[in-house]
Amino acid sequence: MLEEYDRRVIIPGSRSVNATTIPYNLSKYRKLGRYVIAISQALVTMGRLPHTNAADKWVQELYWPLWKALKAFGILQGAGAQINNQTPQGIRIDSFELHPLDGTLQRCQACAYIMNDALFQVCLRCGQRTNAVSTSSLQNFYRRSALYALPNSFFDDPYPLRAIEHSAQIEKHEARDIERWFQDMFHDDQHPNDYRVDVLSVTTTMEMGIDIGSLLSVGLRNVPPNVASYQQRAGRAGRRGSAIATVLTFAQARSHDQYYFNHPPEIVSHPPRVPALYLHNEVIARRHVRSLILQSFFYELFRIQQSSGLFNAWGKIGDITRYQAISKLRRYLAVNREPLLTRCMKVIHPVFTTQLKRWMKELADEVEQVVSRSEEKDSLLEQLIGAGLLPKYAFPVDVVSLSMPPSERSSFKFNGDESSGDDTMARDLKIALAEYAPGAEVIRGSFPHTYVYRSVGVVFTNK
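User: That's the sequence. What structure does it adopt?
Assistant: Structure tokens below.
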């Protein structure tokens, strides 16, 4: 259990033979010698030895009897080859045992060392006198840590700083609880020591529509890519009238981080880049044209029906086939060509005006291709968004999901509520390439409902 360089042996002598040996002697220069001398002085105080000269003689005569007794009781045992014609001795690590403490212990008056027993009330560490103390009165770090696990412990919260993850990996209702606990808002049956959250470990999208109250400190695990990103993340601290706020950024060992570590004003106080909207982007312009035309068409097609949600507003793939929607879309484009052209010109840059007719002509074929490779139960709107035909306002744009089969999901509860049944976790594409790769492990939930999932493969959805 101990490395070779950590092992020590003891042999009789006045000095160490090498780095691994401890000399056995009872001089005042050795800890054992100082303890035996302190015992002899206690014997004089007790009247069991007449004077200090007798105590010195007693120590000298104890040298070999003590050595033989330590070996006879098995405390010291042979440990390796001979050194200077002597067999080295050592204490086996499996000789040590743990026993419950009694109600009373001994504490040194000088160094405060705690002992289970003290011979003649002599401290094992420094040789001074000890006093008996009650076990319950001790404020020992290790003992206190062990007592935290006992029911109705009289000690305070054992965790002085509690950190919790807050990301898309956790259930929505659990995330709401975490946000509430972070703001020190608890239900009547929730003790702050059991539920409070001091530190939130979050992703960079934390700002989006989430209220976690006022922050005194923000820690960044790397230097953000630009000034705007730094200001957005660091700007969470010091709001709502906080007098003092701290932002700590850890610069990793890479060129980007190290550059700004040496030039901090460039990332902290330089003006951010002015946002730009590229109206000449054909891909974005064409998506908005499709959106405008299809929204108008499906409003006419399903105006009498009520959808069961936003993404079902345009119906399922099966509805498109059943209502012959593609053929109706072609007729709608032919009949309403001029009004649609007029409306589309209002939402795109004039440079694309000459291409509008071609875009409208190809629209029905584009929708038909998406329908042909989708399943009947799929939402048409979701499939069109996923195929890149419509604008995607979600953030981040490229999202990869990790799906867990229903048979593998755990039927656990959070605060008495059943799991929502959500069988997917989502990550940005760049992160998912590593975190969701086959063989990678993902942790979901928080203690005591923490589960580890392992990715086993990639599913091609043909989208």
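The first helix runs from residue 31 to 46.
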